[in-house]
Design a protein that fits this description.
The protein is α/β, with parallel strands linked by helices. It has 11 helices and 10 strands. The model has no long low-confidence stretch (mean pLDDT about 95).
Amino acid sequence: MTNVLLEKKGHIAVATINRPKALNALNSQVLEDLNEMVEQVKADEEIYALVLTGAGEKAFVAGADIGEMSSLTKAEGESFGKKGNDVFRKLETLPIPTIAAVNGFALGGGCELAMSCDIRLCADSAVFGQPEAGLGITPGFGGTQRLARLVGPGMAKQMIYTAKNIKADEALRIGLVNAIYPVEELMAAAEKMAATIAKNAPIAVRACKKAINDGLQVDMDQAIVVEEKLFGSCFETADQKEGMSAFLDKRKHEPYQNK
């Protein structure tokens, strides 16, 4: 994984897209490395939360690699879109919570990558956008779908049709990001949030993520059944017994064991 660095810090992991000279642009190799990173994180039962960011001071991910895309045929374009979508969907459905720490430009595929994470924190210098219509294509890595779900169809259509970028304060206003930090404080804030998540019962946190994500895909009658089953699945775990015993005993719970 030369294009993606993965570092474990206790029960959290930090993944850094590492092509700073190319503003961390997504080419086929980066997508393959992202896929490998997600597989590694998924296989490691000691990782309870993941932070994703970009190397350098300018960009989270400035977009997909235009040089690679410029000569694609219709079939190759569809295949490249599927490759990106498959990786981003794998990230989106990773059982543990994910936080995008957006440290600069998040354009095109970069905005789409951030939207594949559960939570987006950004630097005050961050810039978001889906510029594809200005290049003669559509967003191809889930942008037309996730943006509309996050900020509503009207705002998503405005951003995509105009191909205009927005700054951090506008991204916060429309609900695209959760919070803004000075760039020098961003990673500390993201890691602190990940560590806070990791201190809660991991089985319960994963069940919460699945309940929200799966429930949003069905109507409310089906969604509450999804929740009931995941709620029930937490009982009889060691962490549930310890958490509730500690509450009743008015003591601090022991570190959760993920079992």
